[in-house]
What we know:
Layout: H1 4-27, H2 31-49, E1 62-68, E2 74-79, E3 84-89, E4 94-98, E5 104-106, E6 121-126, H3 130-133, E7 136-144, E8 147-158, E9 161-170, E10 185-187, E11 192-196, E12 216-220, E13 241-243, E14 249-255, E15 260-265, E16 272-277, E17 314-316, E18 326-327, E19 340-344, E20 349-355, E21 361-367, E22 375-380, E23 386-390, E24 395-400
Antiparallel strand pairs: 1-24, 2-3, 3-4, 4-5, 6-7, 7-8, 8-9, 10-11, 11-12, 12-13, 14-15, 15-16, 16-17, 18-19, 19-20, 20-21, 22-23, 23-24
Helix pairs in contact: 1-2
Amino acid sequence: MGALVPGLIVALVLCVQLLYCKAMFKLFRGPARWAGLLIFALAATPLAALQFPEVDQGYPGVRVEQLATGLGIPWGMTFLSPRQMLITERGGSIRLLDIDSGDVTALQGAPRVVAEGQGGLLDVAAGPDFANDGWIYFTFSKPVDSEAATTLARARLRENRLVDWQELLVTDSATGTRRHFGSRIAFDDQGHVFFGVGDRGERDMAQNLGNHIGGIMRLRVDGSIPPDNPFVGDPQARDEIWSYGHRNPQGLLFDPVSQRLWSIEHGPRGGDEINLIVKGRNYGWPVISHGKEYWGPLSIGEGTSKPGMEQPRKVYIPSIAPGSLMLYRGEAFPAWRGSLFSGALKLRHLNRVALSADGEVQAEERLLEDLGERIRALAQGPKGWIYLSTDSGQILRMRPD
């Protein structure tokens, strides 16, 4: 019986349309009759306009639709409502996408950013109490004299403008390079916000707790420092640091089901890592690494392991160049539930890693390789569909076929 319901609804709509057409022919004569029918046809158009173009991608059972194109490296995405998605572009623009109609609206009030190299406007995330307080969180490379520093800020959306900007932390990470800014945002379920900063092209600084370089930071959502952060009270360390020794974390998530914080970061030539982030731990860069120097086949640091330094849960050799991290908890793809997903920039695919209940890596799968796209940001939508952005300026949606 359930399978008949959609057909009955369609039949009912067609009957209503036919009755309307008949009434129009009786009510109007001459040109007015055709004008009425034209108005009816235009009114019915949105039903057909909801069909987005499909993208050939070669994965069975999955439909990939193109919702938007022509954007400028869409770096971050977050849902503000079941229908509205906010998108940051690395060049500094912020846009609002209607996922039902495909309409894109440019927003005003974006912060000033250093959009050079790997810097610019980076991640965006609706706050954990967005429905009540309206806060939206951003990371970006902020101009600091002639340099740039990864910054966490928040603002509210009023009509088509971002207002009430608050800079929560301008990190001590300014260098003259334009590399390795990080930076993704994650919230736990206890009122904290996390975000990461890369080594900023000064690799040895990632072992120096006296700055924020190579660290994952933990703050309260208002920007204040939690008293239980691991280095609070240490005069040689920054109070905001939660973990350190990271090269360039460009994926970060908190899973409320398992209460785990996960990160994925770029290695050098080989050695991308998925890490389970634990309070106060040292993740080794550049003392240990599974990658090689760019200029030759030489190992980096002292080897791949050292006492007191954490080992990754997964290493990618060769590098996939991860651009994001998402843990799937939706219903649309039951076989993928509990898996980690990452966009691959270099190897151009969507990477899926299956996890056991205790967080151990079980298997890896590479999806959407036929697209040939540098996949940047990921988001799980209200229906459990998967949304992704590409460096070519597209917003795509994966749904069951």
